[in-house]
Amino acid sequence: MQYARLERLGWNDEIARQFEQHASGLDPGRVSVQHRGSWIVASEQSDDLVEITGRLRHDAAAGELPVVGDWVGLRDGLIDVVLPRSSKFSRKTPFTEIAEQVLVANVDVAFLVMGLDERDFKVRRLERYLTTAWEGGATPVIVLNKADLAFDLDEQIADTESVAFGVPVHPISAERGEGEELRGYLADGRTGVLLGSSGVGKSTIINRLLGEEHFRTADVRSDGRGRHTTTHRELVEVPGGGVIIDTPGLRELQLWETDGGLDQAFVDIAELIAECRFSDCGHRTEPGCAVKAALADGSLPAERWESYLKLQRELAHLERKLDPRLRSEERKRWAAFSKRQKQRRKIVGH
Questions:
Q1: What is the pLDDT of residues 280-325, one digit of tens each?
Q2: Is 340 within a domain?
């Protein structure tokens, strides 16, 4: 079946095959807005505010519930199936609870937006965003907005490129109408998301791509902090091809589980570690340590090494906290499943 509108939203042959396998007999759609307890789903015919089926609400773990960007199957006007995700951007919930919060899904390009004003330009924060983007499966692109407010543009670009390692860097001023080159990343129906803290100009950038003031914007507050003009995540179609997701500013981004994202974001350090004489080198007193040598000659800045260690400690702490909780949750889910199976057998027996 042909889906002209869904194709503009990213539908392709691979998604169609997944849909036939996982959502037979249902109507396809893509989540464009997420509210508390309800979702706006764009289907071939319309955009509808819907809820999820009781089965999905009961069986899905927190990180498996629909988010903006998900492809879903609708049954009787309710979301009944969430298709497997090709990528996702996750963080640890910004509370004491140890849980995954999936922000967006099925994103091809993650535009990591940072302001070039003194308030927002922080390379250490960018390293954290790069780690999360690589781990989630999206291709990162760095957007340095507010070039008109840069305090030293050449130095800031150099500082960014020193941690980017092959990631494209685009210094622009969305306020002056720049950033048209970002459209190229959305060709062929690709999905992009803009991520960054409040006040960096994400909504202004998207409005420029859309050619209209679709998202509300506001000036930075008098205390230098960004205003949260975007209050929810929203997926919109970009004229000329592709879709883009706007997101509220992130006050903090705590890492979720990462298998390879840290090594990709810190590929320079990963390569140094591979050169150490001993495979279990602790990079302290061991002879033949390539990391210590790089720190000594200045080719590896000490602050970058400290940033790597900080993120590594954060992930190790998360892993220690997470394993017992996951085992407990798995036991509870299997116990609930067994209980339902016993109840069904009793009903059949009667």
A1: 999 998 999 999 999 999 999 999 999 999 998 888 877 777 676 6
A2: no
Which range of residues forms the domain containing residue 215?
91-95+102-246
CB 267 within 8 A of CB 288: no
137: left (phi over 0), alpha (psi -120 to 50) or beta: left
- Centroid of chain to Cα 99: 15
Distance separating alpha carbons of residues 202 and 185, to the nearest angstrom: 16
Q: Compute how many other C-beta atoms are within 10 angstroms of the C-beta atom of residue 321.
A: 12
Pairing of strands 100-105, 88-92: antiparallel
Are 216 and 193 members of one domain? yes
Instruction: Please give the Cα distance from 103 to 126 (Å, whole number).
Output: 17
pTM of this structure: 0.83
Question: What CATH number does the domain containing 186 carry?
Answer: 3.40.50.300
Q: Sign of the CA dihedral 60, 29, 19, 100?
A: negative
Please check whether residue 349 lies inside any domain of the structure.
no
User: Do 48 and 41 meet the contact criterion of CB atoms below 8 Å apart?
Assistant: yes
Range of lowest pLDDT (147-161, 261-275, 334-348): 334-348
Taking the CB of residue 338, how many other CB atoms lie within 10 A of it? Answer: 10
Count of other CB atoms within 10 angstroms of residue 191: 25
3-state secondary structure at position 192? strand
Q: 87-108, pLDDT tens digit by residue?
A: 998 887 766 667 778 899 999 9
- pLDDT of amino acid 221: 42
When divided into structural domains, the chain yields a total of 3
User: Which residues 6+ apart lie within 8 Å of 132 measured at CB?
Assistant: 89, 90, 91, 253, 255, 256, 258, 261
